[in-house]
Write a structure and sequence with these properties.
512 residues, alpha/beta, disordered N terminus
Length: 512
C-alpha cells in the first residue's frame, strides 16, 4: 500500500454532539467508515465566492446610482481584514459582469469600471487575499449588444454571424481589460442563468434572456474566439442547469472541445439532492467536470441547520458528483438589504446606513461575520489548500434500508505538498447523536497524531486537541495519552505499516 505522513488534521463540522473513534479492528458495520488512502479520486481545485463590487437594491430590486460596494466602502484596516481573515483560502472570485461591474466605454460595447478606484480595489483584493483569479460571467452584456439597450431585461439584438463575431471580439476586450487591471481571468461563462429574462419585464436587475437555440448559436461563434485568444481559460456552461439545460451543445462533438465544465445553480438545495439526483447531474457530461457555482438561501435567512446543510452540500458535490470546485455567493452584503443574511458570509455597514437598531455592533465602513454561513466554509478555507486529492471513503448504509446516509458524511483528502490526510465529518441530524467509527488501514508508523478542529454555526475552529492514533496493537485512553501494550507488530510485505486486519481499539472521543 502507498505510504503517507504521520500528521493529519481532522476538521469536524457538526450540528449536535457526536462521538468518533479510530480503529484498526473491524467493528460493527453500522457505523464504520473506511478511509482508503490508496484509492485517489478527483483533484479539488479550491472554492470560489462572488463580490458585490457595485450597488444593488434591497431584495435585488434595481441598480441604484450609489456606489454601495466592497471593498470600496470599507476603511483601510477593514479591507485588509477582509482579505486576510475571510478571503484567504479561496481560489476564485466570481465577477458579475453587467451587474457588479457595469461601467461602459463611450460606445457602450465594453464593460469597464463605473466609479474611480473600482478596479484598483478588486485588484488589491485579488493580490492580498492570494486569489488565483476571476470567474468572469455575464449577467448582461454591455447595452450596445442588447435589444433594449440597457442592462435590465432584454436579449441580444441580433444572432446573425457578423453581429456575433463583433460581440465575441468585445467580450475578448473585456477579458483583456480585467487582466490589464490586475485581475487574471481563469474561468469564463457566456451568461448567468440564461433562461432568466426570457419573458419580457421579468427581471428587476441585470439579465439577458436566451432560449436554448439562441444560447447554442451564440456560444458556437463566441466560445471558439474566447478559446483562441485565451486557451487556458476554463469555459463553463451554463450557470443554471449545465448539460441538462443545454442539450444541443452537450450533443455537439465540435462544440464540446470548447467546453471545460458544466455549471449548475442548485441554490439553497438540500444536500441530499446530490445523492438522489447523482445520475441526472452526471449523465451526458461527456467527460467534462460538473460543479455548482452559486449557492445561497434565496429567502434571506440563515440558521444552525443551514450551516451544516451548506457544509454537507460542499462535501456531497465533491463525493457524489466528483466536482473540482464549489462556489458560495457573496463574501459581504450590506446591512440594509433584505436578502443579505441568506447571501453573505458577512455583513458590512454602508456609509448611508444610519439605522443602528440592526447590527449595532457594526460601524460604518466595518464588517462582521454571519456565523451560520461563514462557519460552513471556514474549515475548508483553513484546512483545504488548493489542489487536494480526494480519497475514497466506504460508508455504512442507513440502518434497515441499505440506502446511502443523508445526515452523516465523511470527506477525506490528501494535501498536495506534504500528502497529509485531512478528514471532514458532518452530522446534520438535529435530534440524534451519531457514532462515527473510522478505520484507516494504511497508516505509516507506530503512531499518528490528528489535530481536531470543530466548526458549528456559532463556533469557529475550536481546538479539540491532539488525537494520538496508534497503528498496531496499542491503545489510547480517553484523555488522549497512549501506552504500548504489545510490541508485536505485523508488517506488510513491503517492509512497514499495518495490514488491513491489524487489531487495535485505538481512540474514542465525544464532541460536546
Amino acid at each position: 500500500p502507498s505510504r503517507h505522513g504521520t500528521l493529519a488534521l481532522v476538521v469536524i463540522l457538526l450540528l449536535r454532539c457526536c462521538c468518533f473513534s479510530f480503529v484498526q479492528s473491524q467493528p460493527s458495520p453500522s457505523s464504520l467508515y473506511t478511509i482508503l488512502v490508496s484509492q485517489p479520486r478527483q483533484t479539488i481545485w479550491g472554492l470560489g465566492f462572488e463580490i458585490q463590487s457595485d450597488s444593488i437594491g434591497s431584495g435585488n430590486n434595481g441598480l441604484p446610482n450609489e456606489t454601495t460596494s466592497v471593498p470600496h466602502d470599507l476603511v483601510d484596516e477593514e479591507k485588509m481584514r477582509l482579505y486576510k481573515d475571510m478571503l484567504t483560502g479561496f481560489r476564485y472570485v466570481r465577477l458579475a459582469m453587467g451587474l457588479y461591474l457595469r461601467g461602459n466605454d463611450p460606445s457602450q460595447k465594453l464593460i469597464i469600471e463605473r466609479y474611480a478606484g473600482q478596479m484598483e480595489g478588486l485588484a488589491n483584493m485579488t493580490k492580498y487575499a492570494g486569489l488565483e483569479g476571476a470567474d468572469v460571467e455575464y449577467w448582461s452584456p454591455a447595452p450596445y449588444w442588447k435589444s433594449n439597450k440597457q442592462y435590465i431585461n432584454g436579449h441580444l439584438a441580433s444572432y446573425n454571424e457578423s453581429f456575433l463575431n463583433d460581440f465575441g471580439d468585445a467580450l475578448i476586450q473585456d477579458i483583456k481589460y480585467l487582466g490589464s487591471h490586475g485581475i487574471p481571468v481563469k474561468m469564463w461563462g457566456l451568461q448567468n442563468e440564461p433562461p432568466v429574462g426570457q419573458q419580457a419585464g421579468s427581471c428587476v436587475y441585470s439579465c439577458c434572456g436566451y432560449t436554448t437555440a439562441q444560447y447554442t448559436q451564440t456560444f458556437s461563434i463566441v466560445a471558439p474566439r474566447i478559446k483562441a485568444s485565451f486557451p487556458s481559460v476554463h469555459v463553463h456552461v451554463d450557470s443554471w442547469g449545465g448539460q441538462q439545460s443545454q442539450p444541443l451543445l452537450a450533443r455537439n462533438a465540435t462544440m464540446l472541445q470548447y467546453i471545460d465544465g458544466w455549471t449548475y445553480h442548485r441554490i439553497g438545495a438540500d444536500s441530499t439532492m446530490q445523492i438522489e439526483q447523482q445520475k441526472e447531474f452526471l449523465d451526458g457530461a461527456a467527460g467534462k467536470v460538473v460543479y455548482n457555482n452559486e449557492y445561497e438561501y434565496l429567502d434571506g435567512k440563515t440558521s444552525p441547520y443551514r450551516c451544516i446543510n451548506t457544509a454537507q452540500s460542499i462535501m456531497n458535490w465533491f463525493v457524489f458528483e466528483q466536482s473540482p470546485t464549489w462556489f458560495w455567493l457573496h463574501a459581504l452584503k450590506p446591512t440594509y438589504n433584505s436578502e443579505s443574511e441568506g447571501y453573505g458570509l458577512g455583513l458590512w455597514r454602508p456609509w448611508d446606513d444610519n439605522n443602528t437598531d440592526h447590527y449595532p455592533q457594526i460601524q460604518k465602513g466595518y464588517w462582521d461575520y454571519i456565523g451560520s454561513n461563514w462557519n460552513a466554509l471556514a474549515g475548508f478555507l483553513r484546512y483545504m489548500p488548493w489542489d487536494v486529492v480526494r480519497v475514497e471513503v466506504t460508508e455504512p448504509t442507513a440502518s434497515g434500508t441499505g440506502a446511502i446516509r443523508t445526515e452523516q458524511r465523511i470527506l477525506a483528502y490528501l494535501r498536495p505538498n506534504d500528502k497529509k490526510l485531512v478528514i471532514v465529518i458532518t452530522n446534520r441530524n438535529e435530534t440524534a447523536n451519531y457514532d462515527f467509527v473510522i478505520k484507516i488501514p494504511q497508516l505509516v508508523s507506530s503512531s499518528t497524531t490528528f489535530s481536531g478542529h470543530l466548526f458549528q454555526s456559532n463556533v469557529t475552529d475550536k481546538a479539540l486537541g491532539d488525537i494520538h492514533l496508534v497503528a498496531n496493537d496499542q491503545e489510547t485512553n480517553n484523555n488522549g495519552h497512549h501506552h504500548d501494550d504489545d510490541d508485536d507488530n505485523d508488517d506488510d510485505d513491503d517492509g512497514g505499516g499495518p495490514k488491513d486486519d491489524d487489531a487495535a481499539d485505538t481512540f474514542k472521543r465525544t464532541i460536546q
